[in-house]
Amino acid sequence: MSNKVHLGHQARKRFGQNFLNDDAIIGRIVAAISPDNDHTMVEIGPGLGAITEPVAERIDRLNVVELDKDLVERLQSHPFLSSKLAIHQGDALKFDFSQLIEPGKTMKVFGNLPYNISTPLMFHLFEYAEHIANMHFMLQKEVVLRLSAAPGNKAYGRLSVMAQYHCQVIPVLEVPPGCFVPPPKVDSAVVRLVPHQTNPHPCDNLAKLHHVVSTAFNMRRKTLRNNLKKLFSDQDFEELSIDASLRPEQISVAQYVALANRLESR
């Protein structure tokens, strides 16, 4: 384990900072990301550069989005990285990723995401899905379980439906707390998200899908009929062959899309 990374920088609680510090795990993550010059490479929250350095070694240019000004300064004066990085100081949640698009290239996006912003940040990135080849994120293990959960599973919810609408979700590896400085109180995991080139269940209006899914999961214990009664009649459910007595976690992404499309067609 290399201890060099966190010298001179105190992890900040408000940024949810835990720095990866295990060379074997870092190697496996970099192999999964598979950095190359044929894609626009984008790292969110490079931190102290544990993943940034080995990725940058393999490519000519790396875009990084970092909120913490101290870490930006470290990267700007880094003896090896500074010449390879295009540094964007700011909040990834508000960042316009379309400004990184290069002609003829899609993006490979990766990052060790702070737990407090991981879900909203993924929703933000889904807006750019057509420009993204794949995304690799280190997340809280329970978030990876939610992303990849199938209908009928306790972890299946709004995040599962929206992520799987946009992407194929593939858990890559688990990362125990001891691989970080300071060790987080939770288990982490790396997930690969591959945006669909052609969406298997195209939605006519994404805002309607968001609305249907969040309304359905607002009260998980209630039936679809109860939760969605302001939006759909029994006849709607019948015509779409969806059992209204089921709970929200019991129907598929395709069925949520069918409901959203019904709403849009009115």
TrEMBL record:
Its EC number is 2.1.1.182. Belongs to the class I-like SAM-binding methyltransferase superfamily. rRNA adenine N(6)-methyltransferase family. RsmA subfamily. This is Ribosomal RNA small subunit methyltransferase A. Residues 25-197 form the Ribosomal RNA adenine methylase transferase N-terminal domain. It catalyses: adenosine(1518)/adenosine(1519) in 16S rRNA + 4 S-adenosyl-L-methionine = N(6)-dimethyladenosine(1518)/N(6)-dimethyladenosine(1519) in 16S rRNA + 4 S-adenosyl-L-homocysteine + 4 H(+). The lineage of its organism: Bacteria, Pseudomonadati, Pseudomonadota, Gammaproteobacteria, Alteromonadales. InterPro entries: KsgA/Erm, rRNA_Ade_diMease-like_C, rRNA_Ade_Mease_Trfase_CS, rRNA_Ade_methylase_Trfase_N, rRNA_adenine_dimethylase, SAM-dependent_MTases_sf. Its main location: cytoplasm.
